[in-house]
Records
---
Amino acid sequence: MVESFLYSIYLVNLVSMNLLIESTLKTLQKSKSLLSFLSNEQLSDASVSPYYSSIGSHLRHILDFYECIFSASNSIIDLTERRRNPLVECDCYCANDYLDKIINSLKSFNDLEKEVKVIDDLGLGKLTTKYTMSAILVQANSHTIHHYAIINYILDGLNINVNDSDFGYNPTTPKKVVEEN
């Protein structure tokens, strides 16, 4: 009886882990779709106010966040020490290659309950916090969607249409709001 209960808990955890990985892969697939139709000029265009950032700078930032997670050593993820490869911001091929590396890391990852220390600077200096890998990946997924919303503003400013009515919207956003916009 106890073995059956424990096996049930194991299966629930396994489904949750798979759901986390699959959801994150689905979110990152939007980057792949975006890169499939952008030119290098569009990727690097920083002409849209008020921040004058490019689609490429946001994609690079998203991918740097994941790369930082997957390249952690000694169970320490230092988000203040991200890679920041400027070529990703202006070269669709380079960005797509970087994205593929992140996707492959995510597909092969299997230790979501591993405890890690995450270092970040929230504005008053570096802070170290205990996480699990699942928690930091949930944060990374939400962070990605947040940057997709910013990219959507840039796309609009560049008169580029994305045929994805959910691009930049959190899955919990009521569908009515998405359809009205």
---
Amino acid sequence: MQNSRNMLPPIHVIDFEGNRAHGIMEFGLVTLENGRMKNIFYRQCSPKISPQNAPFREHSRFHGNATQHSFAEYLPLFRARRRSGFFCAHNASVEDRLLRQYTFLPPMSQNMAYHALSDRCRASDKTPTPTQITPITTAPSWGPWIDTYRIYRKFYSAAKHYTLAELIRHFRLETELQTLVTQHVNNKKLTFHRAADDALATALLLQNFINLFHLKDIRFLLNC
């Protein structure tokens, strides 16, 4: 039996479709555990403001979402996932920003606090020290995030672009991804920029990277 200390904890891969004005209008959620995908879950959500507003027209496929549940109703699911493992997304700052709209602002990280203090010190050419940094710790954080965009940019300079579609093509994962989409998503054709398809694509890329490097330490992924 494989030693549990040599296994990665569950990683919950997330993709959101939405924007600042309307919030999260679609999400995909896939768990990667012991090298396998499980608990594949996706939903469309009602917008935070009326779909008649002009920016919403850019998301025409969500015009019927007004009758769906708000994403806020799914927060218990995301909190439960976060307690059981780590979050991952492709260009995770986007998902983090959208998620924060529905919760208290997370505490400022040491890195964020350092740069904020650096801006204030720049005029006097002073460099802040760790003892000067006082992070905010009164609100919960959804991080740290595993970011497949940053991982592949760091380790695969041969790729021309780092979009999900380009990376899936680069590593010849189209057929495997199409099979996953056919099995688990209602639409029969792979369509990028759909939350379920993109969450599966991100999970597949993360799985691909873990297998290539035979990773057993979550810290390696978190520090990329």
---
Amino acid sequence: MERSTRQRSAIRTVIDVAGRPLSPQEVLDAAQGEVPGLSLATVYRNLKQLLEAGEIQTVSLPGDSPRYESAHHDHHHHFQCQDCGRVFDIHACPGDMAQLAPKGFTVASHELTLYGRCADCGAAKKAAPKRVAAKTTAVKLAAPKTSTTRAAASTGTAAPARTAARARTAKPRA
């Protein structure tokens, strides 16, 4: 059995307290509060040892890097926010999935992941349109017109800038 170190203890505590699966970077960010010199390599090494000891388990979601959670959870599912990427536990299960399997198939286990927007990102999304609209308006008002834009506007065409530049620098034919 591996000896318990301050780093491993901090990593184990972060995972236990989080209440949701964490990426190695999230583990590092949270554990650095207790162990300031902690590195990502040390986090990976300790995650591997905690996995081997059966203290944590891997949560694998399609198209995403593994995350880690306490191995002491009962059967549960996950929700992944499509905005921030965080993963949350769902401590509910729709139950027997055997009825969904094709006739003659036997279901041994199941995993369910819901995707959407978490409460934090949902609140930020509601507040964001007002700020974005104000910034866009300010940029449009402050954007200076170029000579190419003025020329295109006066002729009613949208000539690319490089065409106008070629016309100014073209050598006359002899």
